Protein backbone atom coordinates (compact mmCIF):
# COMPACT_ATOMS: atom_id res chain seq x y z
CA UNK A 1 0.00 0.00 0.00
CA UNK A 2 1.26 3.49 -0.88
CA UNK A 3 0.17 6.33 1.39
CA UNK A 4 0.47 9.83 -0.10
CA UNK A 5 -1.77 11.79 2.30
CA UNK A 6 -2.60 11.51 6.00
CA UNK A 7 -5.96 13.01 6.97
CA UNK A 8 -6.47 13.69 10.66
CA UNK A 9 -9.75 14.23 12.34
CA UNK A 10 -9.02 16.92 14.92
CA UNK A 11 -11.26 16.90 17.99
CA UNK A 12 -10.47 13.85 20.08
CA UNK A 13 -7.48 12.89 17.92
CA UNK A 14 -5.00 15.72 18.28
CA UNK A 15 -6.67 17.62 21.14
CA UNK A 16 -8.95 16.63 24.01
CA UNK A 17 -11.70 19.05 23.03
CA UNK A 18 -14.52 16.47 22.91
CA UNK A 19 -14.27 15.99 26.68
CA UNK A 20 -14.29 19.73 27.40
CA UNK A 21 -17.25 20.32 25.09
CA UNK A 22 -19.05 17.40 26.72
CA UNK A 23 -18.56 18.91 30.16
CA UNK A 24 -19.94 22.26 29.03
CA UNK A 25 -22.93 20.67 27.28
CA UNK A 26 -23.77 18.51 30.29
CA UNK A 27 -23.65 21.49 32.65
CA UNK A 28 -25.92 23.54 30.41
CA UNK A 29 -28.39 20.67 30.06
CA UNK A 30 -28.55 20.49 33.85
CA UNK A 31 -29.39 24.21 33.94
CA UNK A 32 -32.30 23.46 31.60
CA UNK A 33 -33.59 20.73 33.87
CA UNK A 34 -32.35 17.83 31.74
CA UNK A 35 -31.22 14.87 33.84
CA UNK A 36 -28.08 13.51 32.20
CA UNK A 37 -24.40 12.93 32.88
CA UNK A 38 -21.11 13.43 31.09
CA UNK A 39 -20.85 9.82 29.94
CA UNK A 40 -24.28 9.99 28.30
CA UNK A 41 -23.46 13.31 26.63
CA UNK A 42 -20.25 11.93 25.17
CA UNK A 43 -21.97 8.79 23.92
CA UNK A 44 -24.65 10.91 22.24
CA UNK A 45 -22.63 13.65 20.60
CA UNK A 46 -18.99 12.71 19.93
CA UNK A 47 -18.21 13.12 16.24
CA UNK A 48 -21.64 14.57 15.45
CA UNK A 49 -22.10 17.51 13.07
CA UNK A 50 -23.80 20.64 14.44
CA UNK A 51 -26.96 20.19 12.37
CA UNK A 52 -27.54 16.67 13.70
CA UNK A 53 -26.63 17.70 17.23
CA UNK A 54 -29.16 20.54 16.99
CA UNK A 55 -31.97 18.12 16.20
CA UNK A 56 -31.12 16.00 19.25
CA UNK A 57 -30.78 19.00 21.56
CA UNK A 58 -34.10 20.40 20.35
CA UNK A 59 -35.71 17.32 21.92
CA UNK A 60 -34.02 18.19 25.22
CA UNK A 61 -34.51 21.95 25.49
CA UNK A 62 -37.27 22.62 22.96
CA UNK A 63 -37.23 23.98 19.43
CA UNK A 64 -37.82 27.52 20.69
CA UNK A 65 -34.66 27.45 22.81
CA UNK A 66 -32.23 25.22 20.95
CA UNK A 67 -30.48 27.88 18.86
CA UNK A 68 -29.74 30.02 21.89
CA UNK A 69 -28.64 26.90 23.77
CA UNK A 70 -26.16 26.05 20.99
CA UNK A 71 -24.88 29.61 20.95
CA UNK A 72 -24.23 29.46 24.70
CA UNK A 73 -22.44 26.11 24.70
CA UNK A 74 -20.26 27.13 21.74
CA UNK A 75 -19.18 30.31 23.50
CA UNK A 76 -18.61 28.59 26.84
CA UNK A 77 -16.68 25.82 25.11
CA UNK A 78 -14.54 28.39 23.33
CA UNK A 79 -13.67 30.07 26.62
CA UNK A 80 -12.94 26.70 28.21
CA UNK A 81 -10.61 25.84 25.33
CA UNK A 82 -8.56 28.98 25.98
CA UNK A 83 -8.28 27.95 29.60
CA UNK A 84 -7.72 24.20 29.34
CA UNK A 85 -7.16 22.93 25.80
CA UNK A 86 -3.78 21.35 25.05
CA UNK A 87 -2.49 18.89 22.45
CA UNK A 88 -2.97 15.27 23.42
CA UNK A 89 0.17 13.55 24.75
CA UNK A 90 2.54 12.71 21.94
CA UNK A 91 0.75 14.82 19.33
CA UNK A 92 3.50 17.38 18.75
CA UNK A 93 6.34 14.86 18.49
CA UNK A 94 4.27 12.59 16.27
CA UNK A 95 3.32 15.37 13.84
CA UNK A 96 6.91 16.62 13.72
CA UNK A 97 8.15 13.14 12.83
CA UNK A 98 5.83 12.54 9.87
CA UNK A 99 7.27 13.17 6.41
CA UNK A 100 4.08 12.63 4.41
CA UNK A 101 1.67 15.46 3.51
CA UNK A 102 -0.85 16.13 6.29
CA UNK A 103 -4.27 17.74 6.44
CA UNK A 104 -7.30 17.90 8.71
CA UNK A 105 -10.83 16.73 7.90
CA UNK A 106 -13.23 17.86 10.63
CA UNK A 107 -16.94 18.38 11.18
CA UNK A 108 -16.04 21.49 13.22
CA UNK A 109 -16.81 24.98 12.02
CA UNK A 110 -13.81 26.49 10.21
CA UNK A 111 -13.48 29.37 12.69
CA UNK A 112 -13.60 27.00 15.65
CA UNK A 113 -11.00 24.69 14.12
CA UNK A 114 -8.68 27.64 13.48
CA UNK A 115 -9.12 28.86 17.08
CA UNK A 116 -8.25 25.46 18.53
CA UNK A 117 -5.22 25.10 16.28
CA UNK A 118 -3.97 28.52 17.38
CA UNK A 119 -4.64 27.87 21.07
CA UNK A 120 -2.67 24.64 20.98
CA UNK A 121 -0.04 25.98 18.54
CA UNK A 122 -0.70 23.02 16.26
CA UNK A 123 -1.30 25.48 13.41
CA UNK A 124 2.44 25.25 12.68
CA UNK A 125 1.73 21.81 11.19
CA UNK A 126 -1.39 22.74 9.18
CA UNK A 127 -1.69 25.79 6.93
CA UNK A 128 -5.23 27.07 6.33
CA UNK A 129 -5.36 25.49 2.87
CA UNK A 130 -4.97 22.09 4.56
CA UNK A 131 -8.06 22.48 6.74
CA UNK A 132 -11.27 20.87 5.46
CA UNK A 133 -14.57 21.16 7.30
CA UNK A 134 -18.08 19.83 6.90
CA UNK A 135 -19.50 23.07 5.50
CA UNK A 136 -17.25 22.70 2.44
CA UNK A 137 -19.17 19.69 1.12
CA UNK A 138 -22.83 18.75 0.54
CA UNK A 139 -22.86 16.24 3.40
CA UNK A 140 -20.56 16.15 6.46
CA UNK A 141 -19.39 12.97 8.18
CA UNK A 142 -20.64 10.23 8.42
CA UNK A 143 -20.98 10.77 4.64
CA UNK A 144 -17.68 10.30 2.75
CA UNK A 145 -17.84 13.71 1.02
CA UNK A 146 -15.39 15.54 3.28
CA UNK A 147 -12.65 12.96 3.01
CA UNK A 148 -13.13 12.63 -0.74
CA UNK A 149 -12.89 16.41 -1.02
CA UNK A 150 -9.59 16.42 0.90
CA UNK A 151 -8.16 13.74 -1.39
CA UNK A 152 -9.28 15.63 -4.48
CA UNK A 153 -7.66 18.85 -3.25
CA UNK A 154 -4.35 17.03 -2.88
CA UNK A 155 -4.70 15.20 -6.21
CA UNK A 156 -4.46 11.74 -4.65
CA UNK A 157 -6.78 8.75 -4.94
CA UNK A 158 -8.80 7.53 -1.93
CA UNK A 159 -6.67 4.37 -1.87
CA UNK A 160 -3.61 6.55 -1.25
CA UNK A 161 -5.08 8.18 1.87
CA UNK A 162 -4.80 7.19 5.52
CA UNK A 163 -7.46 8.60 7.85
CA UNK A 164 -6.93 8.87 11.61
CA UNK A 165 -10.24 9.00 13.47
CA UNK A 166 -11.69 8.73 16.96
CA UNK A 167 -15.41 8.42 16.20
CA UNK A 168 -17.62 5.81 14.59
CA UNK A 169 -19.15 8.55 12.40
CA UNK A 170 -15.72 9.49 11.08
CA UNK A 171 -14.63 5.91 10.54
CA UNK A 172 -17.78 5.21 8.55
CA UNK A 173 -17.00 8.25 6.40
CA UNK A 174 -13.49 6.98 5.69
CA UNK A 175 -14.66 3.43 4.98
CA UNK A 176 -17.32 4.68 2.57
CA UNK A 177 -14.66 6.85 0.90
CA UNK A 178 -12.64 3.64 0.31
CA UNK A 179 -9.76 4.92 2.43
CA UNK A 180 -7.64 3.13 4.99
CA UNK A 181 -8.61 4.25 8.49
CA UNK A 182 -7.14 3.67 11.94
CA UNK A 183 -9.10 4.26 15.13
CA UNK A 184 -7.75 6.21 18.11
CA UNK A 185 -9.25 5.59 21.54
CA UNK A 186 -6.76 7.36 23.81
CA UNK A 187 -8.61 10.62 24.54
CA UNK A 188 -10.54 11.41 27.71
CA UNK A 189 -13.96 10.96 26.10
CA UNK A 190 -13.26 7.32 25.22
CA UNK A 191 -15.27 5.25 27.69
CA UNK A 192 -14.84 1.54 28.47
CA UNK A 193 -15.45 -0.49 25.35
CA UNK A 194 -15.01 2.51 23.05
CA UNK A 195 -12.45 0.68 20.94
CA UNK A 196 -15.04 -1.99 20.09
CA UNK A 197 -17.31 0.72 18.73
CA UNK A 198 -14.50 1.85 16.44
CA UNK A 199 -13.75 -1.69 15.36
CA UNK A 200 -17.40 -2.32 14.52
CA UNK A 201 -17.45 0.87 12.45
CA UNK A 202 -14.65 -0.54 10.30
CA UNK A 203 -11.30 0.70 11.65
CA UNK A 204 -8.42 -1.29 10.19
CA UNK A 205 -6.19 -0.85 13.26
CA UNK A 206 -6.92 0.41 16.79
CA UNK A 207 -4.45 2.28 19.00
CA UNK A 208 -4.46 4.45 22.12
CA UNK A 209 -1.12 6.30 21.96
CA UNK A 210 -0.37 8.89 19.29
CA UNK A 211 3.28 7.88 19.41
CA UNK A 212 2.21 4.62 17.72
CA UNK A 213 1.23 6.34 14.45
CA UNK A 214 4.65 6.38 12.73
CA UNK A 215 5.05 2.66 13.42
CA UNK A 216 1.55 1.91 12.15
CA UNK A 217 2.29 3.78 8.93
CA UNK A 218 5.44 1.70 8.41
CA UNK A 219 3.42 -1.43 9.17
CA UNK A 220 0.78 -0.79 6.50
CA UNK A 221 3.00 0.60 3.74
TrEMBL record:
Keywords assigned by UniProt? Hydrolase, Magnesium, Metal-binding
Q: Which InterPro entries match?
A: Beta-PGM-like (IPR051600), HAD-like_sf (IPR036412), HAD-SF_hydro_IA (IPR006439), HAD_2 (IPR041492), HAD_sf (IPR023214), PGP-like_dom2 (IPR023198)
- Keyword RNA-binding on entry: no
Q: Name one Pfam family in it.
A: HAD_2
- In the UniProt record, does the keyword Magnesium occur? yes
Q: Which cofactor does it need?
A: Mg(2+)
Q: Annotated Gene Ontology MF terms?
A: hydrolase activity; metal ion binding
PANTHER family named among the record's database cross-references: 6-PHOSPHOGLUCONATE PHOSPHATASE (PTHR46193)
What family name appears in the similarity comment? Belongs to the HAD-like hydrolase superfamily. CbbY/CbbZ/Gph/YieH family.
UniProt-recorded name of the protein: HAD family hydrolase
Species for this entry:
OCS116 cluster bacterium
